[in-house]
Recover the amino acids of this structure.
């Protein structure tokens, strides 16, 4: 992604994939000493990056995890661009407005926590959080209750109505499973987003599509969050469509 951003922006930069295994902090120190601008962080190092950062953005604080490090003079700044990546892919790339909509977010783990604040910033009419363990959804709802949007916590069995936008932040698609959501949450005007992505539609996307929803996977989120990181490091926001199109051909 970042190498492709270099191609579309013309900015001379070097992006290298690194797997630190058990030496995350030491790897970051080497990057800093080598003159690096920052790093995109993936699972399972997001919590380590959170602890390592000297300063955190509000969205990283809300997420409790960091996926982007920026190396500043004498300090490390931690940010989380996952949520803004999701929102940009939905609103800008897919052309689906979130303002005033009824939004359902499936899951209450780290993936869900990381996107709630940017979702609320779009001013949906209501955000419903659902989880197999309703208590976890309730904890998240309480954490974000002061953001000016109606937030509700539910269990899957308590869902009955249809939503304008349904976002799957569970890991079910990784194992070709489905979250236990009823078809009644989908309608022929619903937009359904699965944060996972693959060459073929995920089982959740196929399920939602069967019941009339418009579906999209999370590849665009991957690209958009990386573009936000690139902007943080370089001050230039790259065009994402060419990178998205290229990545899609590589799946």
């Amino acid at each position: 992604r970042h190498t492709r951003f270099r191609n579309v922006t013309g900015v001379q930069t070097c992006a290298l994939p690194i797997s630190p295994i058990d030496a995350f902090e030491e790897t970051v120190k080497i990057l800093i000493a080598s003159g690096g601008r920052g790093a995109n962080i993936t699972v399972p190092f997001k919590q380590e990056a959170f602890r390592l950062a000297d300063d955190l953005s509000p969205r990283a604080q809300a997420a409790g995890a960091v996926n982007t490090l920026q190396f500043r003079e004498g300090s490390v700044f931690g940010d989380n661009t996952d949520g803004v990546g999701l929102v940009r892919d939905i609103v800008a790339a897919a052309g689906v407005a979130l303002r005033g909509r009824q939004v359902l977010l499936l899951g209450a783990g780290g993936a869900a926590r990381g996107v709630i604040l940017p979702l609320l910033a779009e001013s949906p009419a209501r955000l419903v959080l659902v989880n197999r363990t309703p208590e976890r959804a309730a904890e998240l709802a309480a954490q974000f209750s002061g953001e000016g949007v109606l937030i509700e916590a539910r269990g899957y069995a308590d869902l009955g109505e249809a939503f304008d936008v349904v976002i799957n932040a569970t890991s079910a698609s990784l194992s070709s499973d489905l979250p236990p959501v009823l078809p009644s949450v989908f309608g022929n005007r619903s937009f359904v987003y699965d944060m996972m992505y693959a060459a073929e539609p995920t089982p959740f996307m196929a399920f939602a599509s069967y019941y009339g929803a418009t579906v999209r996977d999370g590849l665009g989120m991957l690209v958009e969050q990386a573009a936000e990181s690139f902007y943080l490091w370089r001050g230039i926001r790259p065009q994402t469509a060419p990178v998205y199109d290229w990545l899609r051909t590589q799946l």
